[in-house]
């Protein structure tokens, strides 16, 4: 797993956005509904929060993504882009965004190296290839400034601490 001070990898991956989920009819998604996530490009707008999670529609991940949705709404003044990242396909991510009214994009690690590049990919067992639960803050220069990983299910990062780290990452 990457640590604080490490350069973030230059990654691109398919992305499901709230706009596409809202505009498309659920169950009828096409490749036209899928955007591209490019970390270097989104860093041009300020710090980035990447919240890695195993997969949509699981009990713990659904709770985590909804808590992140609610937390993000409370801290709208933070100058950071928030992205969820999992091994799910972009079409299942679009359906999840639609069903749970998420206001932030979800990045698909399906058939990409984004999860492995951040060092959070499960290497063995029946869920090999999915992401372990982890959060990274990346500053606009592409440096990882904060990391958190879960040791137990239903464990989430301290949002006050995360907010402090996001603010620090945005300060020149």
Automatic annotation (TrEMBL):
Alphabetically ordered keywords of this record: Redox-active center
All residue ranges annotated as the Thioredoxin domain in the record: 2-171
One MF term in the entry's GO annotations: oxidoreductase activity
Region annotated Disordered, chain positions: 1-27
Protein's UniProt keywords contain Signal: no
Pfam families per record: AhpC-TSA (PF00578)
Protein name (database record): Redoxin domain-containing protein
Ribosomal protein in keyword set: no
Annotated organism of origin: Halorarum halophilum
PANTHER family according to UniProt: THIOL PEROXIDASE
Gene3D superfamilies xref list: Glutaredoxin
């Amino acid at each position: 797993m990457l640590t604080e001070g490490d350069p973030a990898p230059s990654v691109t991956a398919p992305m499901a956005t709230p706009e596409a989920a809202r505009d498309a009819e659920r169950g009828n998604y096409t490749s036209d509904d899928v955007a591209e996530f490019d970390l270097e490009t989104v860093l041009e707008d300020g710090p980035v929060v990447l919240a890695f999670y195993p997969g949509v529609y699981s009990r713990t991940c659904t709770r985590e993504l909804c808590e992140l949705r609610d937390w993000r709404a409370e801290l709208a003044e933070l100058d950071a882009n928030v992205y969820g990242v999992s091994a799910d396909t972009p079409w299942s991510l679009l359906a999840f965004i639609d069903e749970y009214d998420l206001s932030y994009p979800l990045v698909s690690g399906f058939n990409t190296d984004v999860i492995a590049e951040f060092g959070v990919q499960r290497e063995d067992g029946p869920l090999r290839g999915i992401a372990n639960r982890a959060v990274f803050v990346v500053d606009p220069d592409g440096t990882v400034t904060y990391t958190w990983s879960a040791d137990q299910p239903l464990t989430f990062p301290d949002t006050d601490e995360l907010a402090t780290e996001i603010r620090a990452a945005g300060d020149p």
